[in-house]
Amino acid sequence: MKSLHIFLFFVTNIIYSQIGIGTTTPNGALDIVSSNQGLIIPRVALTSLVAAAPVVNSIAGNPLVKSTLVYNTTTNSIGVNSVTPGFYYWEGVKWVRLNSDINWSTTGNLYTNPTINFIGTLDNNDLVFKRNNVFSGRINDTNTAYGVNSLKLNTAGTNNTAIGVSALENNNTGFQNTAIGKSSLMLNTAGSYNVSIGYSSLERNTTGILNTAVGHSSLYNNLIGKGNVAVGKSSLERNISGDDNTALGNNALYNNQTGDKNIGIGSSSLERNISGSNNIAIGNMSLYNNQSVSNCIAIGNNAQLNNMSGQFNISLGDETLLANQTGINNIAIGYNAFNTGNFSNSIAIGNNSIISSNDQVRIGNTSTSSIGGFTNWSNVSDIRFKKDVNYSSVPGLDFILKLKPVTYKLDYDNIQRLTQSKTQISSAESIIQTGFIAQEVEKAAKELGYDFSGIDSPKNEKDFYGIRYAEFVVPLTKAIQEQQQLIELLQKELETLKIKVKSLETK
To answer: In terms of CATH architecture, what is 390-507?
Structure first.
């Protein structure tokens, strides 16, 4: 009876091609049921992913059948064809490792070993990232890109790094660029050696090279400009083709388009410059309104703030040359120096020093009580530099006798009102000074028809009188000479009278 059961069992399985182990009702070709034992797959020592051996087909001469399953027991490190312990199935030309708890999972991983576990490739092919099936990054042997559409169109460019959505998106042949931030260097095609850090920094650059942009929209509009450095939000934002500019500070050189070799350091320094070149502005809003002027230097907050067309100006100090718009060839040194007026070829040195006309030099302010050194001031007086020399046109005693020496004190209220300056009140206000009244000296000279160079007459309605006291030496010398002539004449007359008196006495 037992033999009959065995016979019927095999007949049944042969008829239905099903085998049940631990069950009499198999649900497949092979159905193994156990509550405390497992299935042991053949254990072999694989040598390579592409070598079927030592596993062979049981039918001699036939290739290994696809889906053959084994458990590899060894580790064999041979590059991209390395094998490690685990389950493998034969895919037809190579072994494929089955996922296990030591493989990467899309829901997170446990027990990873940083020496052997990684995300990447085992061959010399690019690693590509996609999001929603859209290109979002690439790592190859020369370029690194991370972010949707970053380095998307690159063909021949090498040694580029792009991090951020659309960073270096259109780059084709540009090389050695670094773009970090959304849309940074987005339109670059062939530009090289650029560094772009910040949202939309260098976004429209196409072929410009050697540019550095750090900050939101810095060098945003640059197309072909090269050698520029912009650090700060919107610094050099509108530059198109200007070269070798340096902008440090929010909105520094913001509006520059074609100007070259400018330096703007400080928020809004040279902000409105368009085409001016070779300018240096250091300080918040220094040279702020400059547009097309070149070769100016402004150091200090608001220095040359309103300059628009004046060139070759130099100012050092907060609010120096503040009101100047068109004046050229000026120098202002000191806080608030030369802060009013629109003049040219003038120099103001000192805190609150005032300029009131063209071709003027002012040293010190109304509080200055001493200017000097260990030697006298020298005027150039070479005969080779003079013409129309006239030895008889200088009046002497006639002019000197008309002068009215006075003592006085400075009226600081009037000085402040008339010069519209921030005049400093000091102890000098109480000092009794000695001198002349310029208008009275001018009147005396005009009465004699004498064009006296010692009078510094106003050059405009806001200018004021001045006196060059050194010039008085000339008419004083002439007066002494005339007096000497009179003295000598009187001496001769006296000698004649003495002779006559003596003659009378002897009679």
So the answer is: Orthogonal Bundle (1.10)
Dig out the tokens for 457 from the structure.
């007459």
Determine which helix (DSSP H) or strand (DSSP E) holds 351, and give its type and residue range.
Answer: none
Q: What angle do CA 431, 436, 441 make, to 5 degrees?
A: 160
Is the pLDDT reported for residue 181 higher than 50?
yes
What mean pLDDT comes out for the span 4-27?
64
Q: Specify whether the CB–CB gap between 210 and 226 falls below 8 A.
A: yes
Residue 120 pLDDT grade (very low, low, confident, very high; cuts 50, 70, 90): confident
Provide the pLDDT for residue 474. Answer: 96
pLDDT confidence of residue 102: 53
Domains in the chain: boundaries: 1-39, 47-105, 390-507
Q: Dump pLDDT digits (tens) for 452-486.
A: 999 999 998 889 999 999 999 999 999 999 999 99
Tokens of 208: 């410009």
pLDDT at 7: 41
- The C-alpha angle with vertex 456 and arms to 453 and 458, in degrees rounded to 5, equals 135
In whole angstroms, how far apart are CA 26 and each of 29, 39, 43, 507? Answer: 7, 16, 26, 184
| pLDDT, tens digit, 9 for 90 and up, residues 231-258 | 999 999 999 999 999 999 999 999 999 9
Q: Percentage helix, strand, coil, to 5, in the chain?
A: 15, 15, 65
Find out whether 221 and 239 touch, Cβ atoms under 8 Å. yes
Instruction: Annotate 426-465 with b (16+ C-beta within 10 A) or e (fewer).
Output: eebbeeeeeebebeebbebbeeeebebebbbeeeeeebbe
Alpha-carbon torsion (448, 453, 455, 461), positive or negative? positive
Specify the 3-state DSSP secondary structure of 301. Answer: coil
Sequence letter at residue 496: T
Q: Give the pLDDT confidence of 281-316 residue by residue, as tens digits.
A: 999 999 999 999 999 999 999 999 999 999 999 999
- 156, 140 Cβ separation under 8 angstroms: no
- In terms of phi and psi (left: phi > 0; alpha: psi -120 to 50; beta: otherwise), the region of 398 is alpha
The token pair that represents 114 in the structure block: 């940083």
Q: 146 has which bridge partners? A: 137, 163
